[in-house]
Amino acid sequence: MWTHQIILAVIGVSAGAAIAGGLFSFIIGLGVISVFADRTHTGKNILLYEDSIALGGIIANIMYIFQIPIPHGEVLLPLFGLFSGIFVGCWAMALAEILNIFPIFIRRIKLFRAIPWIIIGMALGKGVGAFVFFLNRWGK
């Protein structure tokens, strides 16, 4: 009986490691990290950034699996939400940029001067949408 549980645990950990490795490779492959390092002129720390992302994913998974409570979680929750929103937004924009969605769309509708306003509008729309979503969740 216990051998069955050990085999299931090994399969689960192996599958989780493979999927997490693929996700981290995808994030790194999108170029989000290298673009941030380039923009902040901290390219010498790129390996530290990649290790930090992998370590953050590992720690978050361990905390999720073992239900480890976060001390002062109510205070840190807005900060976590902010950083998570920034991360997801940057990830989505990097994926869209790799797929060349924006350059093709901008050339097709001949829209060049309003690009900064469009980007600000998208960011504000995402922020307001998330705010309304969480207001509705807290209100219940």
UniProtKB/TrEMBL annotation:
Origin superkingdom: Bacteria
Keyword check for NADP: no
**Which residue spans adopt a coiled-coil conformation according to this UniProt entry?**
none
From the record, give the transmembrane residue ranges. Answer: 6-36, 48-70, 76-102, 114-135
Taken from the record, one Pfam family name reads: SpoVAB
Q: Write the record's keywords in alphabetical order, separated by commas.
A: Membrane, Transmembrane, Transmembrane helix
Name listed for the protein in its UniProt record: Stage V sporulation protein AB
Species, as recorded: Sellimonas caecigallum
UniProt KW S-adenosyl-L-methionine keyword: no
